[in-house]
Amino acid sequence: MNYKTEFYFFKEGKYQVLPDNSSSNPIYNLPKGHWLGAQATVKDFDGDGNEEIIWSYYLGGLITTADPQVDYFKLNENGVYYKVTSSFNDLDFSQDFHVHAAIDFDFDDDLDLVFKNEDTEEIKVYRNDGQGNFSHVFGNVSFGIPLTNLEKIYSVDHENDGDFDVIVEDSSGKFSFYLNQNGTYVQQFGENNPYGSLDGKDLTVSFYDVDRDGDIDALFLDEDGKAKYYENLTIDGNKPPLVIDDRAKVWLTT
């Protein structure tokens, strides 16, 4: 089975694609051919204005015989991601795959990392020193967000106030929403949860400013690559985003 790596970048008002085999592709150095179960967390961890990549994948091909890995990539001066030494060596790579998410668990305005062992359900938290260096936090860590029945965590600045709010996806594809209010994550319900009507079951989910208008939109992809785009129509209000089927295909046209 062949796997294809695609990187879309925003230029001249639209998203464009660079070929996988081009050294000008910023993710050219990421491991290829290991896409079964692969996951990326892409955030600016060191505050330099560029986004880093935490990349987990199976090394060796088939999941049944391959070894799980977690790599850390930063952007160099040539605009290409390169692998750096990570602090995740105490994760158990013997057989278990790790999903991960960025969250400001200590409310110091930088993004830390949460790893979840898919087999044992064990949670490990790594604190960011603000420079993109991570250290394992030992003992029980609580930051007000339930980690049971967890599928994914998404950190976004929903209010454009400079701190990180959190969208949590559960195993059924439903989304709960937590506002960062003075160093506490407070769950929002009903109309105060603009993401509550979305359904991410069996879809690849991304929350970011798709249309570059200053608010958080949603882009969902199914396993066939068909896209569903949810546009956020207001920054200050709490109206649910508007679903525009296949609108994303316009944005992804080269």
Question: What does this protein structure show overall?
Answer:
- By secondary structure, this protein is an all-beta fold.
- The chain is built from one helix and 18 strands.
- It has a four-stranded antiparallel sheet with strand order 3-4-5-6, with no helix packed on it.
- A hairpin with a 5-residue loop joins strand 5 and strand 6.
- The longest helix has 4 residues.
- The radius of gyration is 18 Å and the shape is globular.
How do you describe this structure in short?
This protein is mainly β. The chain is built from one helix and 18 strands.
- Stretches where pLDDT is under 50 for at least 5 consecutive residues are 245-254
Topology pattern, helix = H, strand = E: EEEEEEEEEEEEEEEEEEH
Biggest pleated sheet: 4 strands, antiparallel
pLDDT average, as an integer? Answer: 76
Number of helices: 1
Compute the separation of the termini in Å: 26 Å
Strand content: 35-45%
Shape annotation: globular
